Amino acid sequence: MKNIAIFASGSGTNAENITKYFSENDKIKVAVVLSNNKNVGVHARVNKLGIPSFVFTRDEFVEGSPILAKLEEYHIDLIVLAGFMNKISDSLLKYYPEKIVNIHPALLPKHGGKGMYGMHVHEAVVAAGEKESGITIHYIDSQYDHGKIIFQATCPVLPTDTPEDVAAKVHALEYAHYPHVIKELLTD
Ligand code: GAR
Q1: Which residue minimizes the CA distance to atom 16 of ligand 1?
Q2: Is-catalytic flag, 104?
Q3: What is the CATH number of domain 1-97?
């Protein structure tokens, strides 16, 4: 069995989608969810699917050892970031090289970097007059939104689209592709 840990900071619709996708799989499963916020939707979404979730403080994330202990306890093979807003520490990167993946809701290298998350990204895409947006699934490295790109998919941005319209299109791409890409990464 290959075990996934999802890190999420918000509503957790991607975490829920990924968990459901693997729920019938006998080789890959979502084993645990970690978050930096106890007051967010991801906990209820995954707990109702039988997946435990834990909250850690910023200091614990930076220091790393409580996170590493939890990942070892659940025999984690791949860390999946799904709307996770804390920077991944160097200690975690060292223990999980090329085993931490992120989804960014735009076409990197455009519209990435510190502060570019969630609706801020879609507002920037519309403000820049982009004709397309999309998703980027990439490995994590020590810089924001910078690691090696694994997969991208695009959607059109119409002149009349609001940031909310773009967000809806991008979310649809996330739900359609992220679980498949994760499965590929965990299939020998
Ligand atoms: C997703 O759109 C994800 O791509 C984005 O946050 C959203 C989380 O939604 N991530 C980033 O912006 C990272 N820079 P969710 O909590 O409903 O899955």
Answers
A1: 12
A2: yes
A3: 3.40.50.170
Residue 114 in this model has a pLDDT that exceeds 90:
no
* Fold equal for 1-97 and 102-177: yes
What CATH class is the domain 102-177?
Answer: alpha beta
Residue from 43, 104, 122, 138 carrying the catalytic annotation? 104
Total-model pTM: 0.97
Edge to edge, what strands does the sheet with 149-156 contain?
53-55, 28-35, 2-7, 76-81, 100-104, 132-139, 149-156
Distance 168 CA to ligand 1 centre (A): 12
CA–CA distance, 183 with 181 (Å, rounded to integer): 5
Q: Where are the domains of the chain?
A: 1-97, 102-177
Residues 171-187, mean pLDDT to the nearest whole number: 98
DSSP-derived pairing of the beta strands 100-104 and 28-35: unpaired
Supply 70's token pair: 């939890």
